Amino acid sequence: LHGHLGESSITPQTDHGVAVIWEKPPPSYLKCNIGSSWCLSSLRVYSSSWIVRDSFGKVMFHSRRSFNDITSAVQADLMAVSWSAAAMADLKLGNIMFEFSSAGAAEALESPSLFPSSYYLCYEVFRFIHMIPRSSLQLVPVSCNSTASAIALSVTRDNRFHSYVASDGPRWLSTLLTQEAASHR
Question: Any idea where the RNase H type-1 domain is (predicted)?
């Protein structure tokens, strides 16, 4: 696979001390936020989640899952991005803005040859992202991924290891989802 990864489609976005919140995608686009949580217990459980919203902020789908015996945070975060992009391809969705908050995964995706143990995962991320028409991958502050992060945290914090894909948003996050949907843009 060496030399077969194309140019990175990651657009870094940094937080310059200003509170950054989730923003609606432009009309005709969807936004898929990717969250993660890693429990360093003896089980080495890692969870990830994604939530897809339209340009009105309405939740279309969300999902969570757990992974066992993960050896590094970068590996886990790359698996989360790959799993999320594969799910969007399986759902036959297009025009997707993927947002994630792992600086380590972003570094691996920007320079895959510097992360030989994660090279295949980088390849998988780009393969799935490029399968989806008009998609992009963006590094954003954690504050932009609060809903997805809360879903992922529910797995490791509350031992909710059951994976699922569901329509609409989780009821227990309805207040946060309503606030984010009311955000300007």
Answer: 48-152
**Three-state SS at 98:** strand
Residue in the structure block whose two tokens are 């939740």 = 59
Closest CA to 88 of 145, 31, 144: 31
pTM: 0.84
- 26's tokens: 């432009």
Report residue 116: phi and psi, to 5°.
-60, -35
* Cα–Cα distance measured from residue 129 to residue 117, given in angstroms and rounded to the nearest whole number: 20
Residue 2 carries which DSSP code? Answer: T
> What residues of the chain score a pLDDT lower than 50?
1-8, 12-19
* Residue 70: predicted pLDDT: 75
Q: What angle do CA 137, 126, 46 make, to 5 degrees?
A: 75
Measured on CA atoms in the order 160, 165, 171, 176, is the torsion positive or negative? positive
Angle at 177 between CA 78 and CA 37, to 5 degrees: 30
- Cα(54)–Cα(31) distance, integer angstroms: 6
**Residues with Cβ within 8 Å of residue 2, at least 6 apart in sequence:** 113, 119
Partnered with residue 86 across adjacent β-strands are: none
pLDDT at 91: 95
A 10 A CB-CB count for 138 gives: 17
